[in-house]
Amino acid sequence: MADSVSPRLRPEPPTPTVIADIVARALLEDLAGGDITSDATVGPEVRALGVATTKAPLLACGALVAEAVFRAVDPKLEFETQVADGTWVPSNRPLWEVRGSARSILMAERTALNFVQHLSGVATLAHRFMREIPVGCNTRISDTRKTTPGLRALERYAVRAGGAHNHRDALGAGVLIKDNHIVAAGGIAAAVSRARARAPHTSKIEVEVANLEQLQQALAVGVDVLMLDNFELAAIRKAVALVDGRALVEVSGNVTLERVADLARAGADVISVGALTHSAPAVDISLSVRVPMPERPVAA
Fold first, then answer.
1. Do the domain assignments include residue 297?
2. 175 and 237 housed in the same domain
3. Does residue 110 sit in the same domain as residue 59?
4. Of 33, 34, 48, 80, which is most buried, counting CB atoms within 10 Å of its CB?
5. In this predicted structure, what is the pLDDT of residue 170?
6. Same structural domain for residues 170 and 272?
7. Residue 200 and residue 254 share a domain
8. Residues in the chain with pLDDT < 70?
9. Rounded CA gap, 208 and 144, in Å?
10. Enzyme catalytic residues
11. Rounded to whole angstroms, how far apart are CA atoms 74 and 252?
């Protein structure tokens, strides 16, 4: 497994305002009634060090969100990142640490870990998919809009941290004519004609096709991107030959790690994987609290 995603590819995270809004909603969910356990069992004077540690190999992602959680609970907490997002980390390694009020650390612990475990899980899965692209293939791995409601900005960031790419971020970001649009519009030609008349001139037009007949209909009206939905490998090869560079070819549906190399070699320009966000397993990260709080080492 690669040590990390290239620093050149490390993406810009969501803005602090976006992160703060998501964190505020998560904390309201967890702390609406306060933390009666920590308040009852831990004195306000107790200081502690919390260290987040990997329990399995993973691609790190989400430290900036964890920091936002701890600072939202207590601005006096000190947070230090040990590993940059997009770095491959083996088991039993520290990711970040937080110092200050033990009560505050305990109040923020679960929310911070929930974010980091999920985002690192998405980044790790994206990285694994990217590793399956054969050398010499320029195929992109892309996410989809199958994201957790309210967490799309963070999940898309995690996909990028894993070295993969993003599809459109919202319905207004591009024209994607799918099967139900085709039915409602009365066919591919009608749907594309209306999209071309209404969409901004800067928007590409993508059409989802279910078979080679639909693909030829879409090619006849000059679309920019063709999404091959649940095509078998042999059909993908035929489709790529028919397209012959006239449009980008995106492959979607029933994409697994085991199929990625074959799909890329068949000529797919993009492989979109909904599982990157809707099925990525959370990774195992723990937060251990140490009391009394150790002093920072004095520099020589």
1. no
2. yes
3. yes
4. 48
5. 93
6. yes
7. yes
8. 1-10, 297-300
9. 14
10. 110, 146, 178, 208, 229
11. 44
Beta-strand (E) ranges in 212-256?
A: 225-229, 248-252
Two tokens at 65? Answer: 């969100």
Q: What is the pLDDT of residue 283?
A: 98
Helix pair 188-198, 212-220: axis angle to 10 deg:
40
- Per-residue tokens: 240: 């790529």
Q: Which helix (H) or strand (E) holds 142?
A: strand 140-142
pLDDT in tens, 198-241: 999 899 999 999 999 999 999 999 999 999 999 999 999 999 99
Q: What's the whole-model pTM score? A: 0.93
Rounded distance between C-alpha atoms, residue 187 and residue 184, angstroms: 8
Which residues constitute the domain of residue 67?
7-130+284-290
- The pLDDT value recorded for residue 262 is 97
Whole-angstrom Cα distance, residue 91 to residue 106? 23
With tokens 């009560």, the residue in question is 103
In a domain, 75, yes or no: yes
